[in-house]
Amino acid sequence: MICADEPVPDDFLKRIRSPLEIFRPFFFAIINLACRLYFRVKVTGLSNIPDDPPYIIAPNHESALDQTIVSYAIGRERREQK
Questions:
Q1: Residues 68 and 33: beta-carbon distance below 8 Å
Q2: How far apart are CA 48 and CA 73, in angstroms?
Q3: Distance between CA atoms of 73 and 41, rounded to whole angstroms?
Q4: What is the reported pTM?
Q5: How far apart are the C-alpha atoms of 75 and 46, rounded to whole Å?
Q6: How far apart are the C-alpha atoms of 75 and 33, rounded to whole Å?
Q7: Dihedral sign, Cα of residue 43, residue 59, residue 18, residue 38
Q8: What DSSP line would sit under the chain, residue for residue?
């Protein structure tokens, strides 16, 4: 527990689990299922993306699902690169 009079430790934010961190696997599992069954996404050109970040991926905004579909298309390994 941290008192108001004490300075905040450097690793304080690292100890807090974000709700995004908790729900991200479930969200991507649902998106993965939807992309495989409903949308039938066909991915081409992954070899054009560099192996090491930084790089920019710019969808053309055909729908509100662009960010989600692009995230699915590039795959988990590249999405979670740091």
A1: no
A2: 13
A3: 8
A4: 0.53
A5: 10
A6: 13
A7: negative
A8: ---TTSPPPTTHHHHSPPHHHHHHHHHHHHHHHHIIIII------GGGS-SSS--------SSTTHHHHHHHHH-HHHHT--
Query: In angstroms, what CA-CA distances link 21 with 3, 11, 18?
Result: 26, 17, 5
CA distance 59 to 68: 10
Is the pLDDT at 75 greater than 60? The verdict is yes
How many whole angstroms separate alpha carbon 41 and alpha carbon 7?
50
Among residues of the chain, what percentage have pLDDT more than 70? 77
